[in-house]
Amino acid sequence: MVAIIALVFTIIFFPFSSPVSALRSNYYDKTCPHLEQIVNSTVEKAMKNDNKVAARLLRMHFHDCFIRGCDASVLLEKKGNHKAEKDGPPNISLRAFYVIDHAKEKVEALCPGVVSCADILALAARDAVFLSGGPTWKVPKGRKDGIISKADDTILPPYPLPSPKSNISELRRNFSERGLSLKDLVALSGGHTLGFSHCFSFQDRIHNFNDTLDIDPSLNPSFANSLRSECPMHNKNRSAGSVLDFTPFKFDNMYYKLLLQGKSILTSDQALLTDKRTRALVVKYATCQEEFEKAFVKSMIRMSKIRGHGRQEIRLNCRVVR
After folding, report:
1. Same domain, yes or no, for 44 and 87?
2. Residue 267, marked binder
3. Do residues 168 and 271 lie in contact, with contact meaning Cβ atoms separated by under 8 Å?
4. Does residue 9 belong to any structural domain of this protein?
5. Angle in degrees, 0-180, between the axes of helices 117-130 and 35-49, rounded to the nearest 10
6. What pLDDT tens digit does each residue of the chain (322 aa) get?
7. Does 234 count as an annotated binding residue?
8. Residue among 33, 19, 51, 34 nearest 194 (CA)
C-alpha cells in the first residue's frame, strides 16, 4: 500500500471515515470490566475445538473493516430477499460466526446493551493472533454497530474487497481508498500466515496461465506441481485447496519467506514482489519476525480505526438490527 495518504484525501474519498478520538483502550473499564477476559476465554475454547478458528476470525475482522468500516456489518444476516455482506461472493467462505455469538451472549449476561459486536470482533481477532503465538496489543474500543449490510458492497465500487487476483496497482488503490499505506498492505498481508485458500482463488496460476504457459512462471515448479495435484484442472470439490503457509496454525513470518521462494498461493501475494517498495518490506519481514510483528500490530490498529457512517447502535444480537 502507498505511504499514508493525507487526511484531506481520506475526508474526500473515504466518506465513511470519521474522527477516531472516541476510540480508547479503556472504554469499557467501568461499564464492562470483564469484557476482554470473556472474549479471550471464548476464543481460546473455540480454537481448542477447531484449529481453523484463528484464521477465520482474523479474516472476518479484515472483511468487516474493509466494507463500511469496522461496524460489524459483516455479522448481519440477510433480511428477506435483501442479501447481506456475508452473502457476497468474497464472504460466502467466512466461518466461525458462532464464536462472536457466544462471546456476545456472555457479555450481554454481564453487561447488557453496553458492548458493540464490532468491538467484540476486533478483540476476538487480536486474541486469535495472540493465541496462535503472535503479538498482542491494546485494542481501541468504543465502536458502534452499523445497520446496513449489502452483498453488492463486497464486489462493486466504490470500495469492494481486495481480490486474491489483484495486481499491485489494484491493491495499492484499494488500501489507499481506506486510508491505509503500502506498509499496511504488506504487513496485513502477513495475516496469510494463518489460513487456507480454495482452489478457485488460484486456479488460474496453475492451469492455462496464458496462451503459451500452463503455469505461472513466478511459482516454484515443484510447488506448482503440488498445487496442481491438490487442485486438478476439472476439480469439482469446492472445499479443496491449500494452506497459505507451511505453518498454517502458527503466527510467524513464514509467509514472507515462502513468498521469496516462489511458494505464494495467491496472485495478490505474488504482487507484493512486483513493486520495489513492497518487495523491500517483504524481505525485511522475512528476515526479522520482530519487525513484522511490530508492523502488523500498528497496521491492525490503524485498520481497526476505520469508522462506519450513518445510524449506528449497540446490537443485542450480532446477527440482527435492533
Report:
1. yes
2. no
3. yes
4. no
5. 60
6. 434 333 333 333 344 444 444 899 999 999 999 999 999 999 999 999 999 999 999 999 999 999 999 999 999 999 999 999 999 999 999 999 999 999 999 999 999 999 999 999 999 999 999 999 999 999 999 999 999 999 999 999 887 999 999 999 999 999 999 999 999 999 999 999 999 999 999 999 999 999 999 999 999 999 999 999 999 998 888 889 999 999 999 999 999 999 999 999 999 999 999 999 999 999 999 999 999 999 999 999 999 999 887 899 999 999 999 9
7. no
8. 51
Does the annotation list 119 as a binding residue?
no
In the numeric block, which cell numbers belong to residue 214? 500452463
Is 154 annotated as a binding-site member? no
- Residue whose C-alpha cell is 445497520: 147
> In angstroms, rounded to a whole number, what is the distance separating the alpha carbons of residues 277 and 250?
27
Clarify whether residues 75 and 147 are in a common domain: yes
Q: Are residues 104 and 140 in the same domain?
A: yes
Alpha helices, DSSP H, located in 144-271 = 168-176, 182-189, 203-206, 221-230, 254-260, 267-270
Whether 63 is a known active-site residue: answer yes
- What's 151's domain CATH number? 1.10.520.10
Task: Indicate the residue type of 209.
Answer: F
> Is residue 197 marked as binding?
no
Contact criterion met (CB below 8 Å) for 116 and 72: yes
* 172: CB partners within 8 A, 6+ apart: 1, 2, 182, 185, 275
Which residues span the domain enclosing 130? 15-161+306-313
The answer as to whether 123 is a domain residue is yes
Kindly state the cell numbers that stand for 64. Answer: 468487516
237 residue type, one letter: N
Query: Is 252 annotated as ligand-binding?
Result: yes
| Residue 168 domain-assigned (yes or no) | no
Do residues 196 and 290 share a domain? yes
- Which one of the listed residues 34, 63, 102, 198 is annotated catalytic? 63
